[in-house]
Amino acid sequence: MSHRGERDGSSTLLTGHGHVLVEIARNPGARIRDISAAAGITECTAQAIVADLEAAGYLTRARTGRRTRYTVNPDSSFRHPAQEGLRVGPFLAVLADSSDAAAPGPDARPRGRPTAAAPAHHDRAGPGTPGPERSR
């Protein structure tokens, strides 16, 4: 499986590990099938990524009956030196917030900034998608 951006030769901002971690943060009770579909990867790859994330301390797994429930460790640090000292919790809070993923509205402006400083439009559609202030 691949997503639209990967088929046309362009890259995506997050790796498979990032997509899986965001999906687990959104839905801690998700099945591997659901995680793989959301991340656009195979179930086998999703299982391997979950194992990697658990081994690295980004999440833990616990069985509840026949289901697995995941818990993300928001205090985990990014591993890349460019993000040294930064925690994954705030990053995941932004990406996993399902209300942000919905159509932008008055509450979609960046938190903690005055209303006057917030841009009039947030382009949530992604790069390459024309927005009101973009011209082609």
Observed structural traits:
single chain, 136 residues, mainly alpha, Arc Repressor Mutant, subunit A, 36% helix, globular, disordered C terminus
Protein model, in words:
The C terminus is likely disordered. This protein has a single domain, classed as Winged helix-like DNA-binding domain superfamily/Winged helix DNA-binding domain (Arc Repressor Mutant, subunit A), CATH 1.10.10. Helix content is 36%, strand content 9%. The chain is mainly α. A hairpin with a 2-residue loop joins strand 1 and strand 2. Strands 1-2 form a two-stranded antiparallel sheet. Helix 2 crosses helix 3 and helix 3 crosses helix 4.
Mind telling me the CATH superfamily name? Winged helix-like DNA-binding domain superfamily/Winged helix DNA-binding domain
Which of globular, elongated, flat, extended, rod-shaped describes the shape?
A: globular
Question: What percent of residues are in strands?
Answer: 5-15%
SSE-based structural type: mainly alpha
Helix count, DSSP H or I runs of 4 or more residues: 6
Tally of separate domains: 1
CATH class annotation: Mainly Alpha
Question: What is the spatial order of strands in the main beta sheet?
Answer: 1-2
Q: What's the pLDDT, averaged over the residues? A: 75
Count of DSSP E strands?
2
The gyration radius over C-alpha positions equals 17 Å
CATH topology call = Arc Repressor Mutant, subunit A
Helicity range? 25-40%
List low-pLDDT spans: 102-136
- Quickly give the CATH architecture: Orthogonal Bundle
User: What series of H and E elements makes up the topology?
Assistant: HHHHEEHH
Q: Alpha-carbon distance between the termini?
A: 31 Å
Summarize the main sheet.
Answer: 2 strands, antiparallel
